Amino acid sequence: MKRTRLIFSGSGGQGVITAAIILAEAAVIHEGKNATQSQSYGAAARGGSTRSDVIISDEDIMFPEVNQANTLVCLTQESYNTYKELVRPGGIVITDSRFVTTTKKVDAKQIELPMYQTVMDKIGKPIVFNVCMLGAVLGVTEILKPPSVMDVLKSRVPEDFIEMNRKALDLGMDLGALRAV
Amino acid sequence: MKPAVDTGKHFINGDIACAEGAIAAGCLFFGGYPITPATEVAEHMSERLPHVGGTYIQMEDEIAAMTSILGGAWTGKKTMTATSGPGFSLMMETVGLAIVTETPCVVVNVQRGGPSTGLPTQGAQADMMQAKWGSHGDYEIIALAPSSPQEMFDLTITAFNLSEKYRTPVFIMSDEIVGHMSEKVVIPKKEAIKTISRIQPRGKKNNFHPFKPGPNGVAPMPSIGQGYKVHVTGLTHDEKGYPVMSVDTQAEMMERLLGKIRNNLDDIIMTDQYLLDDADIVIVSYGVSSRTSYTAVDMAREQGIKAGLLRLITVWPFPDRLIKELALRVKGFITVEINMGQISREVERCAGYKAPSYLAGHPGGAVVPPEQVISIMKEAF
């Protein structure tokens, strides 16, 4: 892998930025790669559109923003409408089927997954929606090894919540693996 | 509990790296007032300082935060505050007090879009001239511009060292993008970190002159409570520190304040030069915009354009001599910055009529794309 560029987008409070940080941290701390995670968000604590860019590379990363994403994740319709052009031709767009209706006009492999619904059915706590999404990204793209992400979760999540996060990550990976590229 | 120097490989954002750098440099007092996007600096200092024998106080506003770090510094401690936009404006009068009282301290500005409350969550580099001239009166200042979380750590230590060495406030002119960006930060072992502390007076406590310069132009600085009698005032003062309202005293004081910076430029000015030796076109940049610029230089070279980068790690004092020398041999300059023309004017001033100077600027809220730099390059040269 030379360089992978990802954009995570959604609404404030969905954990989009946290998921991006977890992925980038796993790449740096557990897989010895370079990663840059940057973000843009509005002034509201919840709601408002949120975007986080992650670049993972074996080389130095200078320009920190992504405009030709290999993988674009959209968890709201608004973020899909805003950012769908930022995926590179032939790239991957992962959306949540409950929140996003995709259009055919995007030159990328669009993967709609029932991530939110699965989390609610199997775990019942929306707080791990973002970790399920991260699992789906790993399942679809295989950019990092799942244990690397799990190790970061273990270091960041209170002990009582680790199992719930592990389950959410696994659910996401299973959903993603069915559509692996 | 973490030690003061948290040796190891971390994945942290620029604000947190800055706080870790401060603690590694020996900072023991932080006067805070939270403001986006600098809040994480204060937040992290509030968590860390009590565990390393330091003190965090959340002050009532930025004026008090800035003033508190002057008081802290006069008790002998290394002190810091961090702010953004409106907070930086509020601190400006006290920055002048820090300069005239020769009080070492570090002020971090994680710049956001302005004027006024502007764009709280989005980056800019539009306070660069305010850093130089924002407080009234004539003075020299030291300002550093980190371009990554690693440099937020490294340059915060450098800022403390320069501040202690020259008894002057030092600015860290960061921005929201670097402050909120997470990357790998390697914190070295404690023994590998070079820290400088102010020279303290020795000898007789009577008839002591706290503003009488030593051999490097900087006066040894006592701490309150050591027994040296000190008078610290914002009024024009003599070497004893007492107010003297005379033209001669003003001239002597100004010579001391300006001289300690102007006579040590080689020690203070740091740059990084990338493919500059054979460059026809010089990109001048600093902070996050220099990351655009490295990419732009690579893109230009791929297209056969001989571009090079002069990255200002120290923005103030400005590297006049270097730009003047470059102006004699290059086709011209492009300054990349997230404002509509601040440091570009300094480049223009130094380049004079020897070489043209252009701006690749941005009104604020995002980084300058490298394509914009290339397009200006092709249009101009």
TrEMBL record, chain A:
Keyword Oxidoreductase part of the UniProt annotation: yes
Signal peptide (from-to): none
UniProt entry keywords in alphabetical sequence: Oxidoreductase
Family annotation (SUPFAM superfamilies): Pyruvate-ferredoxin oxidoreductase, PFOR, domain III
User: Mind telling me which residue stretches traverse the membrane in this protein?
Assistant: none
The domain of life for this entry's organism is Bacteria
Which residue numbers delimit the Pyruvate/ketoisovalerate oxidoreductase catalytic domain? 12-174
| Any one GO molecular function term | oxidoreductase activity, acting on the aldehyde or oxo group of donors
Name assigned to this protein:
2-oxoglutarate ferredoxin oxidoreductase, gamma subunit
Which organism was this protein described from? Answer: Desulfocicer vacuolatum DSM 3385
UniProtKB/TrEMBL annotation, chain B:
Q: Which residues cross the membrane?
A: none
Q: Which residues form the Pyruvate flavodoxin/ferredoxin oxidoreductase pyrimidine binding domain?
A: 20-255
Segments forming domain Pyruvate:ferredoxin oxidoreductase core = 279-373
- InterPro entries named in the record: 2-oxoacid_oxidoreductase, PFOR_II, Pyrv_Fd/Flavodoxin_OxRdtase_N, THDP-binding, Transketo_C/PFOR_II
Q: Name one GO molecular function term.
A: oxidoreductase activity
Which Gene3D superfamilies does this one have?
Answer: 3.40.50.920, 3.40.50.970
- Asked whether the UniProt record includes Oxidoreductase among its keywords, one would answer yes
Q: Which UniProt keywords apply?
A: Oxidoreductase
NCBIfam families in UniProt: PRK08659.1
This protein's name: 2-oxoglutarate ferredoxin oxidoreductase, alpha subunit
Among its keywords, does the record have Oxidoreductase?
yes
